[in-house]
Amino acid sequence: MSDTVEQEREVRERVFAAAALADDLVLRQETARLHPADIAEILDQLDDDNERLSVFSVLDDDRAAEVISDVGESARAALLARLADAHITTLLEGLDSDDAADLLGELPEDRKLLLLHRADPETRRDVQGLLSYPDDSAGGLMKTEVASVDIGTTVRQVRTYLRQHRDDFHDIHNVFITDHKKKLVGYVPVRNLLMADDGSSVDEILLSDLVSVSATVDQEEVAHLFEKYDLLSLPVVDASELLVGRITVDDVVDVIEEEATEDMLKMAGVGDEPLGLHGPVKALRTRLPWLGLNLMTATVSAAAISLFQETIHQVAIAAAFMTVVASQGGNAGVQTMTLVVRGLVLGELSPHNTRRIVMRELTIALLNGTVLGSVAAATVYAWTGNVRLASVMATAMIINMLIAAALGTLVPMGLRRLGADPAVASSVFVTAGTDLLGFLVFLGLLSVALGI
Amino acid sequence: MSDTVEQEREVRERVFAAAALADDLVLRQETARLHPADIAEILDQLDDDNERLSVFSVLDDDRAAEVISDVGESARAALLARLADAHITTLLEGLDSDDAADLLGELPEDRKLLLLHRADPETRRDVQGLLSYPDDSAGGLMKTEVASVDIGTTVRQVRTYLRQHRDDFHDIHNVFITDHKKKLVGYVPVRNLLMADDGSSVDEILLSDLVSVSATVDQEEVAHLFEKYDLLSLPVVDASELLVGRITVDDVVDVIEEEATEDMLKMAGVGDEPLGLHGPVKALRTRLPWLGLNLMTATVSAAAISLFQETIHQVAIAAAFMTVVASQGGNAGVQTMTLVVRGLVLGELSPHNTRRIVMRELTIALLNGTVLGSVAAATVYAWTGNVRLASVMATAMIINMLIAAALGTLVPMGLRRLGADPAVASSVFVTAGTDLLGFLVFLGLLSVALGI
Question: Which CATH number among 3.90.180.10, 3.10.580.10, 3.40.190.10, 3.40.50.1000 corresponds to the domain B148-249?
């Protein structure tokens, strides 16, 4: 493996160099040695659209179709904008229906219609059907190329049927079995067909522990089914339970990565901004609202602090120490919140263990608060020699850690209960709370202790 | 589907109720209607170990084996601690080698040896071999049940071979082909065997675009290969390139979830603490160090603030406004950092686009800073009527947003360059920087503006 990795890296470097020079001969030679997925990765990493086009143009139709369906969103948009309609039509006809629909779905409406019009009737019908589903639904993930046979078919007949549709079924894992009303009744994994006698009927080897989804189900739910039931392919049915497509595990792997990325970005308040390659102005749309919200909450905190101007005027160093209390609370709150958000998403938190989780987080907060509060109090005492200030520090720290644990569990759980996504900007809400309450508790206690 | 979801929920509630009463009869009846994966989920959600044992005890051996390999770590530990050795031995023999190794790997050393000793020789040999690999390596993920045939074998012979090993090969996707020295030379997907003629040789349909890994490769790299090349199963080879096992996509789906969870937790400074069900003391070990580090950095910030005691003494409200500057920087820094960490993990950031990403983040920061800085300055002016204070606010805010963008990109990239994990506690480092520099910039500018 290490040999091939080394070799592959060298080939890549030669491709990067040749792309810069638009050297078609070298590009053709070197890309021929790479897997389409590697070529897609290179296109993602190239920054210059002309260089991307140089690399893409040397690929033959089959490989071009594989590469265009593997490449990231921004590289794809750049390529599609520069390719001729005739070229895209060829690509579309070489793609599975789901990939063809994904590709068309990213184009402007008028170009999409034009290209659909140019495509062959079968592609047009399949792709138009798929485009009617939302991107992030089961319908948006499925492909229409499904192997299905009626009950009573023999294994020999199934083999003939598969051979006849070899191109459509290049990645099937199961053959689905339907009854005489075309309703889905079971499936047979291809390996079981291989182990069965050619003369036997699919009825004898049919498995009926069938998991299926309706086309409108959300992709997060689809991913959850794949994980839970260790599926390779999931049949999709319409409202009358007729088989309309299937979702394959390779697409679900991408969905899982995508959902994890989305959750991380949402927690940080970056909305659903795709990674770093869009224009900066687009990024403002997702980030500015959360920063604006944070400015509002920070201003409320500032107003709370301003209530204690007299205290701060008398003990200016308090302005330094209050930030330590707030900062500790913020970090502890984000720790708890991250665990809880992830637990909610993975389905590990349920009404049956919520109370225990909350109690556990409060216990941890008490222990952390006691340890860190003591250290902080000792530091304050060594620094100022003021026992009152030191005791206020310890007390405020413990209280703010408890507040952090409460907010870290309740904010995401509350968002979930309200039907909102628990990941959405949880960290903005949690740190707003630990800042505000941290300042209030510290300055409040100090004022009382000093009799101000 | 919605019918079944409703029904399943009712069955679950009856299982929860029956578990509380240890009602074996109802438990046997109701669990029989559930998929093993659903039973595992129920065991994860139960809090009481006796209730878990009641549910588990009514399962027959086959289902018990499936459930125990599906259940989460803490429920499994609780069950294994209470099951008799003879029962565990039966479970082991019903499991695939990888699941058997995972299960034994979680037991204390002396019990593990005892159980290995009791197992049949084949299980013992396979499992002992697998236990020699680290948990998070390809060897730790693979199973030893591999279908492989020599070059020259006919499709008919392959079918007979698969039938003979039906139990071991219940989840195979590919038959691997080896040369006369037992070296791996290619593979045939089972669907291609099914489409081929029985009389043909595997040589005719063999695919040689083989991706394989050595047993010592890290699981993150394994997951990356599955995603990139859309694999269903990946052969694992030893140092002399002999086939020793295979990794299947269902296990990789779990790895991807696990790695995403780990990255999120690491970013928040919760180390590799597994979700919420371990004792609180264990949690302290992972969280306290990062909170301790944060206490140190917050104390440094406090010391920086204390340099400006005279300024704060004169303008006590400055203590309120400086927290707004720090808070905005922290949030903006975490936004950038999250995008960059995720981009590094997904391989979307490379030396070829680093500069562009940094420039882009700085541009966004300048735009965000200008908008939010103006709002903040207007607020300060409305509040205090002090123009100097307002201009200091705007300037400090813009500068701290730029600092946040720089730290948000450079901290994770720097950690990566040092060979460290870019996710590890990046948020602790980034917010430490935006706090410290935010306070310094604001108070420094204010002192100059006021001539203190």
Answer: 3.10.580.10
